[in-house]
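Dock 2-(butylsulfanyl)adenosine; give full complex structure.
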Amino acid sequence: MSVSVEKKIEELRNQILKHDYNYYVLAEPVISDENYDRLVKELEKLETENPHLITPDSPTQRVGKDLTKEFNPVKHKIPMLSLANSYDEQDLIDFDRRVKESLPESEKVEYVVELKIDGASVSINYVDGFLKTAATRGDGTVGEEVTNNIKTIRAVPLKIDLSKEKKYNLKNFEVRGEVYMRISDFDKLNEEREVNGEKLFANPRNSTAGTLKLQDPKIVSARKLNVFLYSLISVDEEFESQEENLKLLSKLGFTVNPKFKVCKSIEEVLKVCYKFEEIRDTLEYEIDGAVIKVNSMRQQKLLGSIAKSPRWAVAYKFKAKQAFTKLNEITWQVGRTGAITPVAELDPVKLAGSTISRATLHNFDEIQRKDIRVGDTVVIEKGGDVIPKVVSVVLSERPKKSQPTLPPEKCPVCSSKLFKPENEVAFYCENPECSAQIKGRLIHFASRGAMDIEGLGDALIDLFVDKEFITHFSDIYKLKDKRSDLIQIDRLGEKSIDNLLKSIEKSKSQPFSKVLFALGIRYVGAGAAQKITDHFNSIDDIIAAGEEEISAIYEIGPSISKSIKQFFSNKNNIKLIEELRKSGLTFTSEKKEIVQSALTGKTFVLTGTLSSLSRDEAGARITALGGKVTSSVSKNTDFVVAGEKAGSKLTKAESLNVMVLDENTFLKMLEENE
Ligand code: IVH
């Protein structure tokens, strides 16, 4: 092999690296896209001819060939905290006061104000200068490993030249920041999705989070994600200030948003926040606020954190973006429970990075309260949630002949009578066989968090229900006997039907908790289903259990237990379970490894605030050791763990002579058994 090939490869890599840096980090490209692509192609060719020369940091290695099978959990060495929110001047003044009160009087406080990028947070680990792993935030303690997808982001260096920076020990460090999608790339992506008949993303944040979870890095790469880093952390190194940290990130070649400002007073901070809000619409990416951080790391340490948020930083959230548009029609949608929700059909209008043509009106009371009428010009708003809402009506623009909106008289889908339960605002369709309810239940059943039947989405369910292929959940598992009829349906074809039948078969291995959630029992969300199946061994045990036994489960309240009892008192539902069981769905809990410890079989009640762990963590550790957590104290309770400000449960424990543990004793008990 000639030395010159090696050299040529090295040269091309350095050139590409430099252009990536110019383009993505400095936003100042110096060559055309065409010439850039030529360099990459040349490098690819040389590497294909000389595969032994491929190194993991080569620009060609950004898009690996393998699909990611699953996203492994990664425990963050240092937790990824989240920020408390503030919304106005007073909130920020209060934050400043709290900071100053918690520091010695002599301390001067400086703040760094940064843009709050609206994307998905990520933590990337570098060892010996090489990108090793990247993870999402997850719950702050454990995230998901998304290394292959993060590597496709050209602004993320695969290798850092540590010789540039001798002052710090950077053998092993993490950089944290926000992955985002430019608004123009987001618009393009949605246009393509529309053409392909795919579901549109609501905003750039959702499309970023969705893209990070894709299994094929090739698709991720095509979607052009970007990143801004805001923190470098290392257990080996301490920095003086956030400003120093941002500058170091830039120096090492990471993209840092250049708009950050160092401020000497909260008044200055406020000015910067207002300025950021003003420039919000001129940026190529979405921001939803500003982040204010105490600049000095020493002061940050002194201030520390409470629960999951640092005391040294706060988010300043911008007001929701609003737009004016015309309300053309009010339609009524029937959900899976039969609840009827009014929807505003609008003249399409651009708002916060997406085009809005529908907004929720919540319920009829809300329409009456705001006197919303067809023909009105309305103000719509996109807040924290995805679905925009109608905030108010511009009365001065109301057409003369407008009529107040009337409540629906009958179900807009099946024309059945409606009823309105006491204490509820919604009207309900009384016919459980209403096709909209059937479709809603099926959509929920097949959805990702439930039976996860890939390919069985809204459109196909519509079609199958209308053509009477499915009415009940159990019909889904009988579709395999109708293969020849299904492939006759227009647009569907053999391949897609076979794929669908495959994913239906696969769904049979969903665990019991997902199956219970999929049944769509009122109030039984994914979390409740998990807690219930952790407690009971099988569906038969749940059916046989009394309301009290169910509501004794930690964090399961009486409305859930009542609803479960009601569901299983209906013979049709029992029949449904039998059919699903025959089809092979899982109705028993996975056999937990029987842990033998001093906690095995013991029942705990947690009360008051624990200072070193959350109740969820405490509960998880007890269950992991074979114990049970319930919500109320009875003579069957073995231990009551009493944190600060414990109330009536503690009194009850004392009156029943139940053993009470303080936090320290409880922690010791856990540690001795783990
Ligand atoms: S600092 C302890 N700085 O906002 C500090 N966060 O809850 C933690 N975010 O999802 C975050 N831009 O990823 C920080 N300049 C910025 C940010 C930022 C966006 C996100 C962050 C997290 C959320 C904070």
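Observed: The longest strand covers residues 321-334.
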